Amino acid sequence: MIPADLKVWSAGVKAPEFLAHLDGLEVNRINQIVVNEYLQSSIDSDVFAFGDCAQFIPPGSDSPVPPRAQVASQQATVLAKSLIQMVNGKPLVQFIFKDKGSLISLSKHSSVGQIMGNLSGDFTFEGKLARLFYVTLYRLHQFAIHGYWKTALLIIRDVINRRTGPTMKLH
Ligand SMILES: Cc1cc2nc3c(=O)[nH]c(=O)nc-3n(C[C@H](O)[C@H](O)[C@H](O)COP(=O)(O)OP(=O)(O)OC[C@H]3O[C@@H](n4cnc5c(N)ncnc54)[C@H](O)[C@@H]3O)c2cc1C
After folding, report:
1. What is the chain's mean pLDDT, rounded?
2. How confident is the model at residue 79, as a pLDDT?
3. How does 111-133 read in b/e, with b if 16+ C-beta sit within 10 Å?
4. Beta strands in the chain (DSSP E)
5. pTM (global) more than 0.90
6. Same domain, yes or no, for 79 and 121?
7. Which of 22, 24, 124, 159 has its CA at a distance of 20 to 30 angstroms from the CA of residue 143?
């Protein structure tokens, strides 16, 4: 136990060790495969990488896109299109990161959010509105993965658990 008034837990991102030993692919110091704007590895254009295991530095930028769900999701969409293009002998789709903002959940008590907008400028909000956005986004993710019916069942299960479960962790 570490006695303290406030404890902050933080962790960095490191891609799995085996990526550094894949023969011939360039990786950075945290084992991410270095890719270009088409998500092709810098050494072999037939090898693609995306998400946390890839390092992509946008042209004209000094720093890589962050290892976040939004990046991984946008890259997955681009790559899904690119692979179909490739099979059909057409040009690959370029990945351009569109930062739509961030939402941070501070347990059920509070949330903070920032939406990036071209017309409205950046918009920061917190409290119940941020919490509503966070929960909506979470459910949309579940919907994308599980579909309508399973997500509906998951929502019902969560409501029942909240009503019937203990207010503190018992084990
Ligand atoms: C605690 C935590 C909180 C986070 N919070 C946020 C947040 O609030 N917002 C945000 O944008 N991002 C957040 N992130 C980051 C976000 O989760 C990642 O950026 C995102 O999940 C990356 O997606 P990915 O598909 O690249 O990797 P992952 O989602 O990690 O998917 C990789 C998959 O590969 C599987 N896998 C691994 N090794 C093997 C293997 N050898 N064989 C087969 N399968 C394998 C794994 O099981 C996993 O399912 C958080 C991450 C952590 C750890």
Report:
1. 88
2. 97
3. bbbbbeeeeeeeeebeeeebbeb
4. 33-34, 54-55, 101-106, 110-115, 123-126
5. no
6. no
7. 124
26 and 79 in a single domain? The answer is yes
User: Hey, what are 121's tokens?
Assistant: 């400028």
Determine which residue's CA is closest to atom 30 belonging to ligand 1. Answer: 52
Q: Which amino acid is at 20?
A: A
24 shares its domain with 81: yes
Sheet of 110-115, strands arranged across: 101-106, 110-115, 123-126
Task: Decide whether any atom of ligand 1 lies within 6 Å of the 111 Cβ.
Answer: no
CB distance 113 to ligand 1 below 6 Å: no
Q: What is the CATH number of the domain that holds 63?
A: 3.50.50.60
3 located within any domain? no
For the stretch 44-75, pLDDT in tens is: 999 999 999 999 999 999 999 999 889 999 99
100-130 pLDDT per residue, tens: 887 777 776 677 777 665 555 667 777 777 8
